[in-house]
Give the backbone structure.
Amino acid sequence: MSEFYFIYDSFLGRVFVYSDGRNITKVDLKVKSRRNALIKRPCELEVFARVKEWLDIYFGGGYPDFKLPVQAEGTKFSKNVWRIISNIPYGHILTYGEIADMISSGSGNRMSARAVGAACGRNPVPVLIPCHRVLGRGNRLTGYSSGLDIKIKLLELEKTEFVL
């Protein structure tokens, strides 16, 4: 459970980062209501100092070369998708179909690009698990849980080519 939060001001607007006290548990790029944040407690934690440093580098157009402690809750399948996405290098992309093929070849079971897209949509820590780096067939821009406008800005920040 996310007990604490930290607000980071970026060119996207306010980013709410939640923690259980040790790990980052949620990142909200498009806060629809402050109500959810207000039931938590703002706090200065060591993990928030590290995430601020990470976000400063990232939103400054650089690649943070250190990992943050993330505790993303999800199904075994979702966590497998997020593990693959976490390994997509800064400024690169994969398609939903490519990720589905990776999972299929490893498990022997046919996997759909839509299932991968659904797992991306459930990613509780966007940017830290960079699901914005996953595009549709032909590098076409497709959905993003925080909104396509934010996905476009993140891809542009990383100077990544995509098709609208």
Q: What stands out?
A: The helical segments are 34-38, 46-59, 76-86, 96-107, 113-121, 148-157. Strands lie at 4-10, 13-19, 24-28, 41-42, 94-95, 134-135.
